[in-house]
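Pilot study result, target chain (493 residues):
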Amino acid sequence: MPFSFQNAVLLRNANYINGRWAASRSGNTFAVTDPATGEAFAHVPDSVAEDAREALEAAHAAFQGWRRVPAKQRAQIIKRWNDLIVENTEDLGRLISSEQGKPLAEGKGEVAYAASYVEWFAEEATRAGGDIIPASVPGRRMFAVREPVGVVAAVTPWNFPAAMIARKIAPALAAGCTVVCKPAEDTPLTSLALVKLAEQAGVPPGVLNIVTASRENAGAVVDVWLDDARVRKITFTGSTPVGKHLARRSADTLKKLSLELGGNAPFIVFDDADVDAAVDGLMAAKFRNGGQTCVSPNRIYVQAGVHDEFVEKLTARVAALVVGPATDPASQIGPMINARAVDKIERHVNDAVSRGAKVKTGGARVNRDGQAGAHYYAPTVLTEVVGDMECSCEETFGPVAPITRFRDEAEVVAAANGTPFGLASYFYSRDVRRIWRLADQLESGLVGINEGAVAAEAAPFGGVKDSGYGREGSQHGLEEYMHLKYLCQGQLD
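Predicted structure:
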């Protein structure tokens, strides 16, 4: 393996169903590879429909018991889960870096980020109160109470294998729901390790179940949950086409949905911005996890008056980034997740250059000695980018910063909103009137104002338009796993 581990119990290679670790009924497995080398270092079950159905049966059977566990007791279990995650930060960070590729410092940072959601929802579990409604007639009492929706199916992505599990499973458990989960095929080990820690924290059998599956079998596994009316909610982070498919398939059973889908985030720098702060913000937002984040700026608009200064300063910073494996402490940009990801980045850059864009730094694959199977791409700055280039129309999901020069505010707002997506937006300005105009006009679920790192466990995270609906984090994130029941009692006079 790329790293050694202190707590070997975290290295799981089995499904977890009804409190038991077991192989798939198919008997098959698939490989987990290190993106830094392309070499397989673990194998996990390649689950089939029968495994998914068994997990659902367990979750359904456990629901009535779990929902009746007092909220304070559920909170204590989730808090113990948080404590175990924090205690195992080093190993979990290494596991993330091994299968996902991000530098070790980022891997450990993700563990802290994941734990923040677990701790938050442990506390929120005891705050899911209802309302007393003033009665409209004498002798009547009216109440609104919140109840768990039921069995939740969680489908998680590969780019943040710990944080996405935490953002979905912690609020579900806090609300009193039970869970079936399928993690991304590229990064199942982190998810399995977190479930192991949840087991150690005292989550009862059947309350949390996880099955792994290859890309080829993923559809068959999830289809079981989509077709069964006992699954009352789907929570998914991933591409917009898959999210729309899940929404269509959920219609027959009218499941509740939380969909955090694709992005195409604009990053706008105005003439009145603090240019150094804007460069810092873009570096944090764009190059975290090698640009493989859903809120990563994908279209960078810089006003003409500061364009050249911004490009010069940004290029110097990007050119200095160190590309390498997570095992190298100096690495700042790790490998991309797989060969398809690098192919897409290369296609976007080549398309832009062929149509007039200029490469200021990067613009090519990186080949490292002894790592022929690695998936590296050099951090890249492009200028003279226009709106119909592929890198402007599609989410690149890599370390490429395409810069477009603009003249006035109306022009850039129209360009920023001229996309089907609406997850995140960023802008830098010191004009307070402009700040409030753009905060109102930008069509996205998150807006960073003179700030490149916007996510926090206490804040609602989610998008609009083709970026989905529903929110994760904050008090609103707990409400996504509950429904409201109205109680009316009469004849009290």
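One observation from the pilot: The chain is about 40% helix and 20% strand. A full batch analysis is planned for the follow-on phase.
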